């Protein structure tokens, strides 16, 4: 698809296009815009589907379709449903409708990712939704902020399990038309319960090619372009580029179960040999941040409260130590990162064999521990807006994504304590203790934190710059 195809949706079927916002998005719908899939994030970014809870910039839970909530027992929460909300089809939001939407999500196949490993039930009691979990879960409000648990009108949910978001959301923009994997059209919903949107509508084109998205900004075919590649950013006028820290860290995982990196001293030698600044300046053209921990600037509280690591393990001699370093080609920068890292490690004395494949062809071997070192671009904050799930998966003995094959009692204990902590400052502090425990092992060496690059025409005002990529067009977004 070229940038020129954006003109196909420059005006809605009903008439005038003045002030409508044209958006070039990275990925086309994969599941018919079902909120139970990753397509839910599109509905959220267009402000058409809403959840009971929102997350603020710090990742704390805030009211949305629920005005308040209370934890009434270890396993039970009550959410008060907002009065006066009308869906785009004219039906009303009630506790029964909200509970029904959550129940359908728990029964979906496949289950929404936010509910992996979580057993949850929802029922209506008066004007409240009562949510009960099998195990105590201090993050229930955060889970309900996931776009995959959006609340749609009852008619959105078909008997076959399919969900149709067209005309069934509650947000400031009404989804009126979807043209397969090509375009989508949204009009302002003047009956919105909150502040009326300033733009009359949104016209979306799905443009997987990064060069075409950047070209659409240069040509004026798009007002906003998602995920502009680093290689294209330099071709755009400076005033049309925004860089937003992402909760995504480029990390080197070292195999602690077998091979050279069973040795803490050799892991420390790797840590000492890496020049992350060279990677940021060279590979990312300065459009990334050197890592100071697993959690980056997208989580402001992480930098504010980061724990001291104390005295570190001294590096051992790496002279003549043979290792295999692997990564995948799906993310354009990673093969180049691997090449630069190979040179740095060789400079420290390691003999480095480099392996690069498509992710689908390398993940199985990586999880099986067939490489000594693996470079991964990893999201550190998953759907709940909380990094503990990432730490559980990647660094605990039973972790489902433990590329480092780490099994450390101190790490497991620290992660358990973080998982049990209440949301807010106590959980932040416990999470940073877990981060420090992981970093002390040198099983994972964070190198840099990535940024998402967004293109905005100079005529655009107040588009959202969201590191979690949940919000893009808000009620304030408009054209000059």
TrEMBL record:
<dbReference type="GO" id="GO:0043190">
    <property type="term" value="C:ATP-binding cassette (ABC) transporter complex"/>
</dbReference>
<protein>
    <submittedName>
        <fullName>Peptide/nickel transport system substrate-binding protein</fullName>
    </submittedName>
</protein>
<dbReference type="Pfam" id="PF00496">
    <property type="entry name" value="SBP_bac_5"/>
</dbReference>
<dbReference type="InterPro" id="IPR039424">
    <property type="entry name" value="SBP_5"/>
</dbReference>
<feature type="domain" description="Solute-binding protein family 5">
    <location>
        <begin position="62"/>
        <end position="400"/>
    </location>
</feature>
<dbReference type="InterPro" id="IPR000914">
    <property type="entry name" value="SBP_5_dom"/>
</dbReference>
<dbReference type="GO" id="GO:0042597">
    <property type="term" value="C:periplasmic space"/>
</dbReference>
<dbReference type="GO" id="GO:0015833">
    <property type="term" value="P:peptide transport"/>
</dbReference>
<dbReference type="GO" id="GO:1904680">
    <property type="term" value="F:peptide transmembrane transporter activity"/>
</dbReference>
<dbReference type="InterPro" id="IPR030678">
    <property type="entry name" value="Peptide/Ni-bd"/>
</dbReference>
